Structures
1.
Amino acid sequence: MSAKYEVVIIGAGHNGLVCAAYLARAGKRVLVVERSDQIGGAARSEEVFPGFRFSVFSYVVSLLRPEIIRDLELPRHGLHILPLESTLTPLADGDYLAQWADHDQNRRELARHSVKDAEAYDEFGRLMYRMARAVKPFLGMAPPDPASLTLRELKALARLGSNLRGLGAEQFHALHKLLTMSAADYLDEWFETEALKATKSASGIIGTFQGPRSPGTAYVLLHHYMGEIDGVFRAWGFAKGGNGSVSAAIAAAARGFGAEIRTDAPVARVIVRNGRATGVALESGEEIQAGLVVSGADPRRTFMQLVGAEHLPSEFVEGIQRFRFRGSSGKVNLALSELPDFSCLPGNGPHLRGAISISPSVDYLERAYDDAKYGEVSREPYMDIVIPSMIDPSMAPPGQHVMSIFVQYVPYDVNGGWTDAKREAFGDTVIDTLAKYAPNIRSAILHRQVITPADIERMVGLTEGNIFQGELALQQMFFMRPVPGWAKYATPIDGLYQCGSGTHPGGGVMGASGRNAALTILGELK
Amino acid sequence: MLRTTPFHARTAALCASHAWRRWAGYVVASAYELTHEREYHAIRSSAALLDISPLYKYRVTGAHAARLLDRVVTRSVGGIAVGQVLYSGWCDASGKILDDGTIHRLGEEEFRMTSAEPNLRWLEANATGLDVSIHDVSDSIAALAIQGPSSRAILQVLADTDIESLKYFRLVETTLRGVPVTISRTGYTGDLGYEIWMDTDDALEVWDAVIDAGTAYGVVPAGMLALDLARIEAGLMLLDVDYVPARKTLIDRQASSPYELDLAWTVDLRKEHFVGRTALAGESERPAEWQFVGIEVDWDSLERLYGAVGLAPQLPSTAWRTSVPIYADGKQAGYATSGGWSPLLKKYIALAHLKRPWFEPGTAVEMEITVEHVRKRAAARVAKKPFFNPERKRT
């Protein structure tokens, strides 16, 4: 029997599309089925308010793998990554801390707060660069399993080991610290400026249900430096047209290689016969046969909903149930009639073309986490703000603006559950917090879109609204993601694979999971 | 003394980098901001405003104006309509390129010619016996280029005529907020873009108007570093950098014919006479020995060469303008003359002169690079020019 498709992929999120493109490039007949009426999953741009385009969920390109950009020729398919160069941290006392792309400008600004920090900054950057270079090869491979003693695993481990051996003692010890310490403690060893430590540590807590003082958060700092290695290649920044352009470019590449993409085609279940996946059944009742099924949905949705526990070994089911999601972030998107006017740095300027981080101190972030621990939205949340129209004016009508506010902590399991009133209260909290730094914000708002973790789950199907398809915490990374022994994209069901960010190396619009999954599948088909 | 352009009062105030470049005896900004990155991206994403006043400009009028230009340049000028612009090179009697530029037909008997080098004497030398007058208007006409996807919308806000319908390589005489200007849909970036020609006295008024109307569309004043990357992506050659004009050659082999510069399309041998025609007609019957091509350097090869010393690829973020050997089949196959990292295409690209048979697109070659002070050869491939050619350029 020859099915029309060799591979059917569930979900046209960026990883599903990347996987489809690589498989189609290798000559496979590939179909992607997407439940929504548009592609992109959580990497999509939408005109939520007339004339204003939003990156509704994910909003910057930070870790998209350079090899994917090259292999799929994404620039030819319309991907244009614009620089996002500075970070502004407004402070409660009316001052600010800015981090600039220009070295001298950055040093002078840091020295205004601490001469020591200004000098430590370069040394810190160099150490992180060297560690990131040693760890980076991890991202582009199926993670070797140290519990396995097969020759293949040992070889892969040895390869990684030789990378790490290249690190000097100082860097090796630092790496150990990164794997064990909290972001706040690790940064304490280097810097004294509160706002600097807080803003840097924020990258360690994004998408997790942990605070900057939770052990293990230091490691995620390192991910931030992966982009630095790529240097002038510059895979990080803002995608012209919003993050939907990333998905659109990948989809165009996939179609160019012959892949088919069907939207409005929600999958009801994976068809399993005699322990083997043979296709998918759509909610419409239509059945699509395929040699292989690849799921871009998160592990819980894939196994508990689309496959069903009855087809799976019980210890695997337990592992999936233990895999933590705990969505902790929300999003507020604003259409603005004018730019926000920050009291610390009034007027228009280059500071509005980068990130604006509401992270004045480590205590501030930790308190925000404290609220969430007990089931409440942070009274004063951490916010990562960008004004996309300052970078790409075509996102809004001339002279007007869009603002993207990433907010943490917004617990999925909020006390009493999410209601419309709670959502609006969360939106108010965000605006109230921002108004402390930019008082004109309220009067500038033309439209407000508030997205809770429950909304993320409902709108894009991410379990518990976790933006990474599962927390990026050390205990569920590498060979543990999503379940020990099943971190290499294959599953206990023959012919069923995973390609979402619930697998190694995780989320962040990296595309690495989709690529690694495709390469694994192609390797096994040989 | 270096001269400043009519826009200097504005450009100097903006030039935070203090980085200036010489161009035809003038100084123009290399980059306004501390790095040129945003200025480059503006060309491809929104709109960039560039001071191009140092171009040489000549006004050619009279009953025989078209005849003179037809006699000088290799393309046919007589056939173009009023309101049309033409790009061409021009040659000496041996068919070697002297210069290249644009010819704007402003009226039946009125043209404006732009060039990189002075050409007054050459034009006059060829005008003997013709009813034509030639004026060097380089100092009395200021020029701005506005280039990028939003350039049309910005000019439409300002202009008193329909800019939307202005076709590629056409011009219109109009007013911008009341100031008389000529707008041509031309440029040196390979993108949607326009050039604005105006009286020197009106320069600042026009600059201010474009900034005022363009800010909401993201217009960014851009310098030569940004332009240099864009023109390499567009595959456009630069005099003195990519070729030696025949007037400046010290030995014959330094000169190039249009056929060797990928400009065969600009040589119109149907014209009865133009300077260099005899030589070019002869050359057209032989296969070219050299060709001016694009080069794409292979990323994996760069990664291997730099990886061997423990580094990630170190790439040039500004364009280089030096002669770099290109090899093929173990021999030197030619040389690259400009190159750089394309932030848009995410590719290391270069423009190069290659000998037959290596100039065919797709040919595997190697480009010399220096990795930690050691000369290496990176795998590369001959690529079609332009590297970047968006539909919006012409539509």
2.
Amino acid sequence: MNNLTRKLIFFAALLAVWQGLAWSGLWAEYIFPSPLSVARTLMRGFQNGTFIVGIATSMRRLVIGFGISAVIGILSGLAIGRIRLLDETVGSIVLGLQTLPSICWLPLALLWFGLSETAMLFVVVMGALLAITTATEAGVKNTPPLYLRAARNLGARGWKMYALVIFPAALPGLITGMKLGWSFAWRSLMAAELLYVSLGLGYLLMMGRELNDMSQVIAVMLVIIAIGLIVDRLIFAPIETRVRARWGLQG
Amino acid sequence: MKLEIRGVSKTFQSKNGALTALDSIDLDVRAGEFVCLLGPSGCGKSTLLNIIAGLDKPTRGEVRVDSNLVQTTGTDRVMIFQSAALFPWLNVFDNVKFGLNMIGVPKAERQVIARKFLRMVHLSDFERASIHELSGGMQQRVAIARALALNPDVLLMDEPFGALDAQTRDILHDELQTIWTETRKTILFVTHNVREAVVLGDRVVVLSARPGRIKKVFPINVPRPRQIESYAVVDLAREIMAELKEDVLASARDAEASLLQEMEAQRVGDDVL
């Protein structure tokens, strides 16, 4: 029996137990929906477009917020990793702020930006930015000094040193940071959308709660899990594997 | 004189106080000469190369290349490290072109030059290979091609074959002698392998254990190409070994020598960026 078969049997059994419990009538349908009703809600959500709008809204916020975090995070990580003064000053702030769950920025964001997309983006950026900065900084600091010496020796100076040596040398660590940053951004966004009336997947979760529609809650949760897995497996994992192989870090 | 080393001393600050790596080194190297620096580990021979390369500054003394004071790194002096220090994110071809890109050689020209030197080190078929696919000997050849591509006057080689197996090392000794005869570079070659020094060098400069001082200079008048197992090489090696023996023992007993080696490997000039 191979790995895949074992997995399929496990999930089939899980669904069967779930369906069995739902049929047993121990709990009311609105508290404990059956997998079939969750599946029906999923289908309906996609057919009438509410899930699609939700996914699109959340993904747009996520991509924009993550993009901003990546640009600022990589640049500041490179700078903090190389410049001691920045490391001692800004670096310690970054380290401190990293312990703050990013949803704690929401009250501040609401006061600064009001009930707007900007407030939402701000929370997402604060979620991902620090993780990306820290990982980039660590990647830079862990660069073997030998690469810098060799590059310097071969005439590398200034921006070429950053762009063609320090950045690629830090890339494996940086990709780990991007992956982490993405999952932080995703969590922050969901938290923000739950607390704050707007379209998006978090809002659909809240709607489910308010309408006592447990199957919608579970359906949306499944969508969120699926998106997380897809992004991780289809985007980050292949990039990470390729870079690690290229850098000779595997095996 | 191609290279003038005048009263060069180097002291490192460590947790246990000052650590003197080099003590008043005076050495002249003629253009096109092949000089081997031989000494026990931790005698500061890598520090001397770093100083000549401009990757480190002497505490006292100075180095001149063609009468110009060395103040920073320059592509007229290129270093080849023990671990080839190739960039894993670039393939073989791009590694060889790296220095040319840094000094702004036009793209088309870079390709021609890189191909020429890859041919010289017999790696024309490996242009597209990744670095980690190559053996240690092949990596070191790429490093040599990468250094030669910049057309430096002086090649600084820091135990480049130290990590290779004996057969590969013998082959690379032959190749390096051929390359040197063809290109007439001035080569400063650091090693702790006595026979290697005798096979390669016009002169072998023996350094004492820490602090490194020049102990004795041996001219090597064995006709080239030299073979590592030839009588002339073995006899001279034995003579030099006798000179070196007590220093090797001293260095083996010296815990700070290994600390020094570590510091040498970590040093990057303060002005790297």
